[in-house]
Amino acid sequence: MEQLLHYVWKHKLFPLHELRTTDGRSVEVVDTGLHNRNAGPDFFNAKLKIDGTLWVGNVEIHLRASDWYAHHHDTDEAYNNVVLHVCGEIDAVVCTQNGRQLPQMQLDVPPYVRENYQLLLATMQYPPCYRIIPGLSKLMIHSWMSALQTERLEQKTEAIHQRLKQCNGSWEAACFVTLARNYGFGINGDAFEHWALAVPLEAVGHHRDDLFQIEAIFMGQAGLLDPLSISEAHRPEALADDYFQRLRNEYTYLAHKFSLTPIDHQQWRFMRLRPQNFPYIRIAQLANLYYNRRASLSQLVECETVDQLHEALATQATPYWQTHYSFGALSRKNAKRLSKSSIDLLLINTVIPLLFAYGRFRSSEKLCDRAFDLLEQLKAEQNHIIRLWNECGIEVKSAADSQALIQLKNEYCDRKDCLRCRFGYEYLKQKN
Fold it and tell me: pTM of the prediction?
């Protein structure tokens, strides 16, 4: 419940009676301060009038006053600038590291706030705040959705920066890894990222004009040319398949030439996947895309419209895979093109975050603005999360809206972090 005390303090949901310290001095809160979520006091640079004297400093909040000692703040000089100790229960006198006795104030959580909070935590229906959604102003909803869009892009930017470090600062390599991860379309995302990091792009670049050699390296590094990667039921046909043997021989030669080590084939998931989503097909599509030189970061940055990006990312499986779903297993001839809806997902999860991250890196407002514009132009994703918010009364017009609501569910609703949510704030302050 300490988080609830933080919330009550931050939003000044104080009792109607005058606030006083434990020794009877009046307290007027001019400014609650900046909420600190890292190490150190809970609120920085608060402004308080204690018995008419203005104090500027930090505020620490605990469920019980004795927690001051349990958390060893009495030996930490970082807490010497605390000017008020706010607690749900005062059960001890507290002193700072430099020996100063702190003024303390008991803060009671208003009953309606406590009841609303407990109801939010106990509600199993998603979203738990559904009752108040129809009554929220469009301006407030738009403001919160815009903040969530930015938060989601910044979160994806951080993931791209981590890949950039793994790629020794190469933006083109980080672009390839990000694109590959999203070719996993969820279930194989981790495996695709691990695979892409194991693909030596400099080595592949020496053979970029030969689609067969590109596919040999791509499939080989995925561990999919290992006979053990093929199910026992299909292994005899695969081992007798001429294309499988040719790819395997070519990879053996290239692996020796470039000292390549494949990833463990057991990382790949095939169960509950439609055949067009099998790793073989997706890797073949990536090989074709790489061969045709259409999806490098420099080329994606030059695209200014959704149509141009669709054209850049449009690809199909290599010839063998147009008649196969796995080695040795024939299927009806089909180009196995990447669908429009799949390309839209790649734009949302790969291209737009890359534009935003690269724009931040280059201090280019133009690229960052383009990322937001593209999100507004793309249709909203259709999934159970979006449908539930629609049923509550949230209008979802574009991918910008659907991305905001996915962020809301993942980072707030699923974690029951209603105290940081603006919808949660509106819910908690309801007195009826």
Answer: 0.84
